[in-house]
Amino acid sequence: MPVMDGFEFLQKLRSHPQLQDKIVLVSSASVFELDRHQSLDAGGNDFLPKPVEAETLLAQLQKHLQLNWIYDQDERDPAGIRVAARPEIPLDSTIQIPDSAILTQLAEFAEDGDLDGVLEVAKHNQEPHTAAFFEKIVLLAEACEIKQLRILLQEYLA
Hints:
single chain; two-stranded parallel ribbon; 49% helix; mainly alpha; elongated; 7 helices
């Protein structure tokens, strides 16, 4: 970092009242044990050596955020295991959808990966007759399921 190093940044972060209790995972390409200890002494909760391995990152997230991963065998990849967090949202012919301008706006936000935009549109356009539709949209957006959101919106736009 051009203005300060990571140790100084951690010390400033820890001195801020609203941020002092936040979990901080420090990552560095340095393999020296001294750098690891300095990172923890400066305020890091844990250390991730670079290149970051997904399993190590997930284990630290589980540890520090008290998460319980739920694993499910993926039929498309019999050798691999995936986290079962995706909400399955089937199309429902009884759901009333908003007009095409709103669908197009939602699809554009989804295509850009703008989940805040999707949620804002959903929040401002809920009518009693479209509540079930927007409930599905909000569920996918809050779960960060952009691909599923795009698919769902394209199905309704088609």
